[in-house]
Write a structure and sequence with these properties.
This protein is of the alpha+beta class and about 290 residues long. Among the domains are: about 1-90, 434 Repressor (Amino-terminal Domain) (Orthogonal Bundle); about 200-285, Immunoglobulin-like (Sandwich), CATH 2.60.40. It has helices spanning about 1-25, 30-35, 40-50, 60-70, 75-90, 105-145, 175-180, 195-200; strands spanning about 155, 165, 205-210, 215-220, 225-230, 235-240, 245-250, 255-260, 265, 275-280, 280-285. The chain has a five-stranded antiparallel sheet, with no helix packed on it. A four-stranded antiparallel sheet has the order 6-3-8-9, with no helix packed on it. Strand 10 (about 275-280) and strand 11 (about 280-285) form a beta hairpin. Helix 1 (about 1-25) runs antiparallel to helix 5. The protein is elongated, with a radius of gyration of 38 Å.
């Protein structure tokens, strides 16, 4: 096992020396390559020194190798094939490590579909029931209003001494004052400014501090805007303020410590975390 590790280290060193030689042949410095390819200078040195696997995952290493090799004129296919062989030797012949999405069984898909369909059917039934009850209540109120008897008053017929009840509909009479009176105008509700509406849905401002325990690749978005995507070196401490939320992608969760408003939440978990969300309410992995 030790021999395999030593061989893979030497192979990575040889691969890095090939890239370094191509760069020097073109009379390019590390800083020049960094500006032209946007690959961090720390990553470029790690690639040339054969220690890129110590700070990056294989997915990132392949991406940077491909971009660097293309820039300095080295055969990209040869570089990637060599890296895959090196990874295969380190993994005991199992091939390069790849991050695969978890497989979803067809039974689970069917179960989720049936569950969603049941909820939709239940909502439709509930709407139909509400509509039916509304029609019944409206019909009942209409029938009660039609069947209400009209008010009557006694009247005396001419030439008769006996009062006879006749049907006389009494209608309310509106006075001239009431007829002229205009209904009071209701003051319009004050319009809410867009800023007030936006504040109502936000979770509130907060402050997040990131402490880096070992070098790791981090991408950070604040309130939907990408702030940076770069390699943070060990010992880095950076603080960010946001009004709504902060989204983080980190290549290795145990390499960082998160402090939300002076309260430490520790490291999220080991491995790649693609959807770490931070708000004033707390930290969660979506």
């Amino acid at each position: 096992m030790a021999d395999e590790i030593g061989t893979s280290k030497r192979s990575m060193t040889t691969l890095g020396e090939r890239l370094k030689g191509a760069r020097e042949k073109r009379e390019l410095t590390i800083d020049q390559v960094h500006k032209q390819t946007h690959i961090h200078s720390t990553v470029l040195r790690a690639l040339e020194e054969g220690r890129c696997d110590d700070i990056l995952t294989p997915t990132y290493v392949r991406s940077f190798l491909k971009k660097y090799a293309h820039h300095v004129g080295v055969d990209v296919k040869w570089v990637l094939d060599e890296y895959d062989l090196i990874n295969s030797a380190k993994a005991g012949g199992k091939g390069p490590r790849e991050e695969k999405m978890p497989e979803v069984k067809s039974s689970e898909i069917a179960s989720h579909f049936i569950h969603a369909l049941s909820i939709i059917l239940l909502l439709i039934a509930l709407l139909l029931l509400i509509s039916f009850l509304g029609k019944r209540i409206f019909s009942y109120l209409s029938s009660v209003r039609k069947s209400r008897p009209a008010m009557t008053s006694p009247a005396v017929l001419p030439g008769k001494g006996k009062a006879v009840k006749t049907r006389q509909v009494i209608t309310p009479v509106r006075s001239k004052t009431a007829a002229k009176a205009k209904p009071a105008q209701q003051a319009p509700a004050p319009a809410r400014s867009p800023a007030a509406v936006q504040t109502a849905v936000k979770s509130g401002p907060f402050r997040l501090t990131i402490k880096v325990n070992k070098a790791v690749m981090v991408e950070l978005k604040r309130d939907g805007e990408v702030l940076f995507k770069r390699l943070l070196s060990k010992g880095t401490v950076e603080t960010f303020s946001a009004n709504n939320k902060i989204e983080i992608y980190v290549a290795n969760g145990e390499a960082i410590e998160l402090i939300l408003d002076d309260k430490s939440w520790g490291s999220p978990r080991k491995g790649v975390i693609k959807n770490l969300e931070v708000t004033s309410q707390g930290i969660r992995i979506r």
